[in-house]
From TrEMBL:
Protein name (database record): 2-hydroxychromene-2-carboxylate isomerase
Similarity-based family: Belongs to the GST superfamily. NadH family.
CDD domains: DsbA_HCCA_Iso
UniProt keyword annotations, A-Z: Isomerase
E.C. number(s) listed in UniProt: 5.99.1.4
Domain DSBA-like thioredoxin: residue ranges: 7-189
InterPro entries recorded: DSBA-like_thioredoxin_dom, GST_Kappa/NadH, HCCAis_GSTk, NahD-like, Thioredoxin-like_sf
Amino acid sequence: MHAPLTWYFDFISPFSYLQWQRLKPLLRECEAEGRPVRLVPIVFAAVLDACGQKGPAEIPGKREFTYRHVVWLARQAGVPLRFPPAHPFNPLPSLRLSIAAGDTPEAVDSVFDWIWTHGRAGDSVEALVPLMAALNVPADALDADDTKAALRANTDAAIAAGVYGVPTLAVGGDLFWGNDAFDFALAALRDPAVLQDEEMRRVSELPVGLQRRR
């Protein structure tokens, strides 16, 4: 496994939380090889705006289905999950906390645990005070210009790289979007030829057919 790995995520996403549980063993494996995975918090809403899309929680019916599906998936995987008090919520304080804490695996894990394991609010500095203390992050760090600039830069770079959703695991220049694509990403990571056979190349170059009338 030699391709560089980058993981784009947002704490607002329960699918990011679910994939994080599967990513942690890969982090340890890569660390043992001396090849860390870059953990990159981004603003999902900005990515959606750039792509002209709505999030699943913005679509009636899809919102309820998505939440139920997430709960079912967590139970199937044996992952503890409790939704925060409100969703969607403003993830900026949580994202900035991760950045201020260095985006270490321990910091990312602590924020995910706070919001999705214990169902706590992560939408304000005030809500995150106990977690900030545990991570030794001063309160003013979340409002610091360099913290805000880092989050904007992460998001802009993700959009420039073609990211259109979270979670996304980038294996070299190939993007694997969604929790359900994790096994696909691992297969491509361990054997790049997975993406190079005739049918894989053909579907990557298919022309656009008849589109839905507006």
